[in-house]
Amino acid sequence: MSDESTDIKATFSFVSLGCAKNLVDSERMLGLLAQDGYVLVPETESPDLVIVNTCGFIDVARQESMSVIREMVDRKNAGDLKGVIVAGCLAERFKDNLLVEEPGIDQVVGVFGREEISQAAGRIVGGLVEQRTIFNPAPIRAQDDTARLRITPRHMAYLKVSEGCDRLCTFCAIPGMRGKHVTKPMDEVVREAQELVADGVKELILVAQDMTYYGMDLYGRPRLAELLQRLETEVEGLAWIRILYCYPQFFTDELYETLGSAKKILPYLDMPLQHIDDRVLRRMNRRHTRAQTESIIDRLRTTIPNLILRTTFIVGFPGETDDEFATLADFVEAKKFERMGVFVYSDEPGTPAFKLPGRIAEEVKLARQEKLMSIQRPIAEAINARFIGQDMDVIIDSPAPGGRGRAKAWIGRGFADAPDVDGVVLVKGRNLVPGDLVPCRIEATEGYDMIATALAEPDRPERAPRKPRKSSGPGGPDKPRLPILG
Length: 486
Ligand code: SF4
Fold this sequence. Notes:
The chain is α/β, with parallel strands linked by helices. It folds into three domains: 4-134, Methylthiotransferase, N-terminal domain (Rossmann fold), CATH 3.40.50.12160; 156-385, tm_1862 like domain (pyruvate-formate lyase- activating enzyme), CATH 3.80.30.20; 391-454, CATH 2.40.50.140. The chain contains 14 helices and 19 strands. The protein has helices at 20-35, 59-77, 89-93, 98-101, 117-125, 174-178, 186-198, 216-219, 224-234, 253-260, 278-283, 290-303, 322-335, 362-385; strands at 10-16, 38-40, 49-54, 83-88, 107-109, 133-134, 156-160, 162-163, 182-183, 203-207, 240-243, 265-270, 308-315, 339-344, 391-399, 407-413, 425-430, 437-446, 449-454. The strands form four sheets. It has a six-stranded parallel beta sheet, with helices on both faces. Strands 7-10-11-12-13-14 form a six-stranded parallel beta sheet. Strands 15-16-17-19-18 form a five-stranded mixed beta barrel. Helix 10 links the parallel strand 11 (240-243) and strand 12 (265-270). Helix 7 (186-198) runs parallel beside helix 9, helix 9 packs parallel to helix 10 and helix 13 (322-335) runs parallel beside helix 14. The protein is globular and about 60 Å long. It binds iron/sulfur cluster (SF4). Residues 165, 167-169, 172, 174-175, 209-210, 247, 485-486 line the site of iron/sulfur cluster (SF4).
C-alpha cells in the first residue's frame, strides 16, 4: 500500500474574490486540486502555492484583485511562496496584459481554463516556465460543477444553473468574460442538488447571470419553473431553495404558479432592476420598461404572500439627468423594497456605455447613492420591525463572536435574508450548532438585523460547534464581496 503522504504534490492556499458564481468556480478548482494531490493548508503553514480567483467586474473589484495579487507576488519575492496562480474574471478580461503588468505571476488561468487548474499548479511544481497561461473559449455547454470542495458552511451551497449571459446591457463586461448563456441541463442540476444535500446542504441558493433565461438556449423556451418543481420534488432532505439574479423578463404564468404554490422555495426573490426611468433603461439596453417591471412586481406581490423582494440599482449612468434620478428615487420611495443595494456606475473599458456621452461627476454619483440609501434605510428598518413578535424558522450559520456556554448567541438567517448581501438574525439559544433550522421568536431589530430567541432546544449533548469548512488562503476564506448584476 502506498503511503498517502507520498502522493502529495504541493500545498496551497486559496483566495476567492467576487460573487457567488465565482465562489462556485473556486470550489470546483479546490475539488480538482484536492483530487490531483494538492493539499489546502492555512496561510500560516507556508503553502507552496497561492491561487487567487479574481473578480474583474467593476473598478473596486479589480483594485481589490490587483492588491491581493501584488501582496502574493511580494510574498513570493520574499521567499514565502514558490508560485502564484491568478485565475478567474480579471485573468480572463486582461489576458493580454496581466503578465506584462505583473510579471511576478507564475500562471494565469482564464475563466474556462479552470478545469485545468492542476496543470497550472503542476507547471510551477515541475519548474516548467515556458507556458504560463491557460485560456479556453467559452464552452457551448455548461461545465460540470460537481466534486467541489465547498468553502461555504456545510449546510448551505450555491448551485450554478447556467453560465454566461446573452443580454448585452451596455454597462456590463460580463458577457465578454463569461461568454454567451449556456444552460446546465436540468438532469445535471437536479443530480448536483442531490449530491449537495447528501453532503449536508439544507439551503440551496440558485445562481446564474440571468436566472429567468434558464432553458432558452438549450430547450428553446424558459424552463425555470420546471427546474424549480423538480428541485422541490426530487431532492429529498432539502429544506430551503433561494433564487437570486432574476432578470425582469420571462416571468411565465407557470413560474408565477410555481412560486406561489412552493413548499421549499423561499418567498424571497432577488431581481436586479438597475434603473426605472425608461430613457435610462434604453441607454442601458435593458429589455424591460417601467410599466413591464411594475406589472411583474405587482403580480409577484399578489402571488407570493410575504414576499421579500431584493433589488439593486445603478446610479450615475452616463447622461443620467437630475430628473431621471428623481424618477428612480421616487420609485424607491413608493415601491418599498424589502432589501436593496445601490451601485455607483463604473466606467468599464470595452463596454458600449464607455463611449456614451454625459459622464457624471464622481461626487454626484456618490451623492445619488447616498440619497437612495437614505430613502431605503428607514423603509428596510420599518419592514424588519414588522417581524417583531412573530415566529420564524432560522438557519444557524455560526456562533456569534464572544458567545460562551450553553445559552449563547448565534448568527443565523431567516427566509428574509440571503447570506453576505442581507442582514442576519442574532439568536439566543441553547445547544445549537451550525446547520440547525430552529423556530425562533423575533424580539427586536437592530438596523438591518433582527434579534431572536430560539423556541426549541435541540436534544443533543453540548459539543463544540462544528467549524464551517472554509479555505484558509491569504486574505481569509473570502465571502462573496460584490454581487454581480443580473
Ligand atoms: S447586467 Fe446581468 S443581464 Fe445585463 S449583461 Fe450583465 S450579466 Fe447579463
